[in-house]
């Protein structure tokens, strides 16, 4: 179920990166799929999310329809607590609204759980020690180059965040993420730290190194918790599974009663 789990301590913030093990999904989605909700069996999706929430003791999980952009969605405590258990499934469930289109979620108040869904792209979780603001960011190649991480950091700082920490989760590594030479040159002109070479000697991009470089330039402390999704069988991988696969998530949540100075004031 978890590749990494750090349950809430005195700060009241929990961090988790799931894997594909221990779920109810079948076929290409075997077994702990938390994405591709339009294709997987509804009963399996509900079972997987129930197991996650029950294990962590959290309420509904906030997700978005990720579109490889830079839009930030801000979640307040009221919206999070009012969400139904099926809200993460969007209009897959009759009567529920479609998911908001965004690639980062930020919350600065109340008990809330934010998730980002990935299967090779980079999940980045952010927290601030001063305000207890949190964020979950989908940083694929396009979003990374477009500035989604800078946008998320900026949104948190606009709400008073000062001392930011980031956790970079499992994603495809630079030794596996082959790209055309022209694409590599274009990407590295924006973020030089992306430049890499595959294990078979062709041009590639190191998304983890690129994310770390961007975050550190924004004065964010970075923790890398990022085995390669393509080569590690614990994970769903878009490339490794030839485009038919599920999603793991990066999840960050706050526990009720732990409120940072800015939110309290």
Automatic annotation (TrEMBL):
It comes from the Bacteria. InterPro entries: Cu_polyphenol_OxRdtase, Cu_polyphenol_OxRdtase_sf, Cytotoxic_necrot_fac-like_cat. The keyword Transferase applies. It catalyses: adenosine + H2O + H(+) = inosine + NH4(+); S-methyl-5'-thioadenosine + phosphate = 5-(methylsulfanyl)-alpha-D-ribose 1-phosphate + adenine; inosine + phosphate = alpha-D-ribose 1-phosphate + hypoxanthine; adenosine + phosphate = alpha-D-ribose 1-phosphate + adenine. It holds the Pfam family Cu-oxidase_4. Keywords: Copper, Hydrolase, Metal-binding, Transferase, Zinc. GO terms for molecular function: copper ion binding; hydrolase activity; S-methyl-5-thioadenosine phosphorylase activity. SUPFAM superfamilies: CNF1/YfiH-like putative cysteine hydrolases (SSF64438). Purine nucleoside enzyme that catalyzes the phosphorolysis of adenosine and inosine nucleosides, yielding D-ribose 1-phosphate and the respective free bases, adenine and hypoxanthine. Also catalyzes the phosphorolysis of S-methyl-5'-thioadenosine into adenine and S-methyl-5-thio-alpha-D-ribose 1-phosphate. Also has adenosine deaminase activity. PANTHER family: PURINE NUCLEOSIDE PHOSPHORYLASE LACC1 (PTHR30616:SF2), UNCHARACTERIZED PROTEIN YFIH (PTHR30616). Belongs to the purine nucleoside phosphorylase YfiH/LACC1 family. This is Purine nucleoside phosphorylase. It comes from Propionibacterium cyclohexanicum.
């Amino acid at each position: 179920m978890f590749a990494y789990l750090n349950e809430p301590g005195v700060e009241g913030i929990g961090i988790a990166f799931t894997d594909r093990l221990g779920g109810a999904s079948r076929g290409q989605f075997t077994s702990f799929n938390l994405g591709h909700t339009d294709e997987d069996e509804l009963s399996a999706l509900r079972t997987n999310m129930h197991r996650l929430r029950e294990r962590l003791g959290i309420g509904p999980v906030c997700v978005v329809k990720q579109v490889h952009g830079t839009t930030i969605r801000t979640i307040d405590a009221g919206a999070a607590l009012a969400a139904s258990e099926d809200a993460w499934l969007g209009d897959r469930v009759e009567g529920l609204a479609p998911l908001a289109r965004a690639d980062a979620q930020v919350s600065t108040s109340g008990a809330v759980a934010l998730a980002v869904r990935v299967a090779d792209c980079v999940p980045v979780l952010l927290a601030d020690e001063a305000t207890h603001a949190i964020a979950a960011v989908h940083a694929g190649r396009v979003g990374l180059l477009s500035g989604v991480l800078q946008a998320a950091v900026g949104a948190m700082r606009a709400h008073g965040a000062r001392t930011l920490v980031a956790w970079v989760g499992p994603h495809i590594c630079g030794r596996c993420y082959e790209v055309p030479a022209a694409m590599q040159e274009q990407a590295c002109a924006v973020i030089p730290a992306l430049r890499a070479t595959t294990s078979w000697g062709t041009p590639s991009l190191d998304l983890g190194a690129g994310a770390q470089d961007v975050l550190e330039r924004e004065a964010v402390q970075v923790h890398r918790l990022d085995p390669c999704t393509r080569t590690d069988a614990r994970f769903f991988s878009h490339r490794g599974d030839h485009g038919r696969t599920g999603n793991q998530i990066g999840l960050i949540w706050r526990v009720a009663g732990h409120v940072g100075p800015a939110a309290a004031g």
